[in-house]
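Problem 3 from the worked examples.
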Amino acid sequence: MSTRESDRITSAQQTLDILYEMSQLLNTQLDKETLATCVGMIESGVNPEALAAVIQELRRESSVLSAQPATGSHR
């Protein structure tokens, strides 16, 4: 691996670490892997506001599903 590539990777990791710290301060509840995926999607052209709306909707749906009683009988 070249020094230039190594510097780029180090810089990207430092940037992700800073973004993760900010996300923790903002209580986004995103883990580092999810945050990195979101950053990659935004860098690829995904609208950040649309991405945030999708994440919020998925969380709402997950809450609803978690609150529903399990189906099936226990005899």
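Problem 4, a separate protein:
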Amino acid sequence: MFNSLKAFLHPNNRPEGYVYSSSKWVTILMVIGILLYTITDGWGTLVALSLAVALLIGRYMLAKQAAGDFLDMHQAKKGYAKTRNKDYLRFIKARGEQMLNDNKVLTKAAKEEIHQLLAYAEKYL
């Protein structure tokens, strides 16, 4: 059991999603909130924790959007395999390029997956 826990905590074995984690920033904001509590009679803590919650909500929305976009692109790849309709490939190309341009918090694995999908689309276009 300890070996599996140790393997999970090792940086190379952490499950990685489509967007980077915001846990470091949330932790920093929580520590700032703790430090500001006595100085500001709790108002500084309220502001810091509100920012932390906003950051968590923003990351959740980005992760959900990225997961939906990847699902759409993989469905388009399957659709092209069935019908040979090139609109599916154009969709993959447009969505993949848009994600690379708009979403700056994509992980390396997500960017690699997008590049693979774009290469697939370019191969058959």
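Solution to problem 4. Residues 43-83 form the longest helix (41 residues). The chain has a mean pLDDT of 91.
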